[in-house]
Amino acid sequence: xxxxxxxxxxxxxxxxxxxxxxxxxxxxxxxxxxxxxxxxxxxxxxxxxxxxxxxxxxxxxxxxxxxxxxxxxxxxxxxxxxxxxxxxxxxxxxxxxxxxxxxxxxxxxxxxxxxxxxxxxxxxxxxxxxxxxxxxxxxxxxxxxxxxxxxxxxxxxxxxxxxxxxxxxxxxxxxxxxxxxxxxxxx
Length: 187
Fold this sequence. Notes:
This protein is α/β, with parallel strands linked by helices and about 190 residues long. It has one domain: Collagenase (Catalytic Domain) (3-Layer(aba) Sandwich). The chain is built from 5 helices and 8 strands, in the order E-H-E-E-E-H-E-E-E-E-H-H-H. A 5-stranded mixed β-sheet has the order 2-1-5-8-7, with helices on both faces. Helix 1 links the parallel strand 1 (about 1-10) and strand 2 (about 30-35). Helix 1 crosses helix 3 (about 125-140). The longest helix has 19 residues, at about 125-140.
């Protein structure tokens, strides 16, 4: 699988490098690179009354980018990373969103920072959260739905405490599904 991390707006490159490095340990037969391109945050995505950005508009731009830049490999995935607060209709906020069985995924770093919750800055905690969300959203692009195992990276997080309880990797059942899916496309 080829994973391209695509910054959307202003994003710390050190965080992107950490995500890229850790994704290689979760998806060991993959390549992961950080795009030199940066997508702008769509102006129309900002909701003034909520002071948040509509994720589906950002994901749409990532999808367009993926369509233009995807290699011939069927397992090319594009992970957009943004550092603004995002939401989806009907939800107060989301940590990320992805196209189910698609090429595009999105995570937001905004609510993953301990400082958001009034805690001191903690690089390790912050980057662990970012990697978990990246793996989770890429999992959706590989056909995984939410898992009932609360320690599996595919478990749905209603709040940051649930994200902190999860591991960075898949439970055995979800790992098997990922391997089966990838095995259909890459020997």
